[in-house]
Design goal:
Layout lengths: L2 E8 L1 H5 L6 H10 L3 E9 L3 H14 L2 E5 L10 H8 L4 E3 L1 H13 L6 H4 L3 E3 L3 E3 L8 E5 L4 E5 L3 H19 L9 E6 L3 H12 L5 E8 L2 E8 L3 H12 L3 E3 L5 H12 L3 E5 L5 H7 L8 E6 L3 H8 L3 H7 L4 H15 L3 E7 L14 E8 L2 E8 L4 H22 L3
Parallel strand pairs: 1-2, 1-3, 3-8, 13-14, 13-15
Antiparallel strand pairs: 4-5, 6-7, 7-8, 9-11, 9-12, 10-11, 15-16, 16-17
């Protein structure tokens, strides 16, 4: 049985548009995977009276509410005092948590100030949710009819508290929740409309079903709510989509590629021009990537491609820097320089200028060098510079993933 909740996101900077919220999507996805459904999201200002009014009204409508923001020590942080007022409580300094704060600041080589110490002032009776990434703890306040969970606003702290202690708290206090039975699939190499057409013959056989398409950069996530024959439907979709599915959970494509390389005991290096280090960054975002990633070169100029990767000047002159031949030469040179099992390369025109009728903005070549030889793939990606670079990275990782899947070691 699903548990319903509402989110209240707090901050004048969010209402003014000067800061973009990223917590809602994470919380909604993570909670849903645990059987907790977000019914509504409300944005509230850093103003005590209006914030108290918002929390009170929301708790009357939905007895489980989660807030984000306003737990810091500065003058615009009011969530602790407002939460106390909503539950007819008072702020009281938690001496035990104060000691934790002091130790944290000492480790950072800083002294805890009087203002910083206010983060240990919590509503009487509140349960503290430890914050591995920051100073302000999360809070849980509850009475017979209502539960209010207060989280910080800093995204990394929200993620840390949710994964470290909040889901455990839900498990202990809402045992009727649990892992969602939805089907979640991550696909790559297709677009939303094409994916919809492909799976329609399969999903049309089910009467009670809801399909959500979640486009990403160069990929599409599928979330399917189904109340019957879940395993049968999952099997049919996997057979239909094949290697277009790269994960059945919220894994990044670079993590999946890393797992394949680690399993095979093989290594990777990269050479980047148009992606400018973004491909290497995505790879090393994954903890443990040093097991298989040897390094990379950002060879932006023609001279760098010649000096560091050994690309022939004749090839650059004859075919141009954005070409199949240069992409292959970059990958081959990287493979040789690093001694890796595989090498990826990128070269293209990310724009907004520099395109021609023969080589338009968005033209990208991705090279792959392997123990068996090298290859190059041509693409024309739509959109602006940042999007083209992101699509290049996703596509490069997918090319390597599909190659690894095709090999039997």
């Amino acid at each position: 049985m699903a548990i319903n909740t509402e989110l209240i996101v707090i901050g004048d900077e969010l209402l003014s548009g000067s800061v973009q919220d990223v917590n809602v999507s994470f919380l909604a996805q993570r909670l849903k995977s645990y059987g907790i459904k977000v019914l509504r999201v409300t944005f509230a200002p850093d103003q005590p009276v209006r914030l108290q009014e918002t929390i009170t009204i929301t708790l009357k409508r939905t007895p489980l509410v989660i807030t984000c923001g306003g737990l810091g020590p500065t003058s615009d942080d009011h969530t602790r005092s407002v939460a106390a007022a909503v539950f007819n409580s008072k702020l009281k300094r938690d001496e035990r948590y104060l000691k934790i704060l002091k130790r944290r600041y000492t480790r950072l080589g800083r002294k805890l100030s009087g203002m910083g110490a206010t983060q240990a002032d919590v509503p009487e009776g509140a349960k503290l949710l430890m914050n591995p990434e920051g100073a302000a703890p999360g809070l849980v306040l509850a009475d017979e009819a209502r539960t209010l969970i207060c989280l910080p606003g800093v995204p990394r702290e929200v993620r840390a508290i949710v994964e470290d202690s909040l889901l455990t708290w839900f498990e202990e206090n809402y045992p009727q929740s649990g892992v969602s039975q939805d089907i979640f699939l991550r696909t790559v190499g297709t677009v939303e409309t094409e994916l919809s057409e492909r799976i329609q013959p399969v999903i049309s056989k089910y009467s009670r079903i809801k399909v959500s398409y979640l486009p990403q950069k160069g990929a599409v996530d599928l979330n399917i709510e189904v109340s019957e024959d879940r395993e049968v439907l999952l099997r049919e979709l996997c057979e239909l989509l094949g290697t277009d599915i790269y994960a059945q959970e919220r894994k990044d494509l670079s993590e999946v590629v890393g797992e394949l390389l680690r399993k095979r005991g093989e290594s990777l290096s990269v050479a980047e021009s148009c992606s400018g280090g973004l491909l290497a960054s995505r790879i090393v975002d994954i903890a443990g990537s040093s097991d298989y990633f040897l390094g990379g070169v950002v060879a932006y100029s023609n001279q760098a491609k010649k000096d560091f990767l050994g690309v022939s000047g004749n090839i650059l002159t004859k075919h141009g820097v954005v070409s199949e031949e240069v992409a292959r030469g970059m990958a081959e040179g990287t493979l040789k320089r690093f001694g890796s099992a595989y090498a990826l390369s990128t070269t293209g025109i990310a724009g907004p200028g520099g395109g021609t009728s023969e080589k338009p903005v968005g033209l990208v070549y991705i090279g792959l060098a392997t123990p068996d030889g090298s290859e190059s793939h041509r693409f024309v990606f739509p959109g602006r510079r940042a999007y083209i670079r992101e699509r290049t990275v996703v596509t490069a990782l997918d090319i390597l993933r599909r190659h690894l899947l095709s090999k039997v070691k």
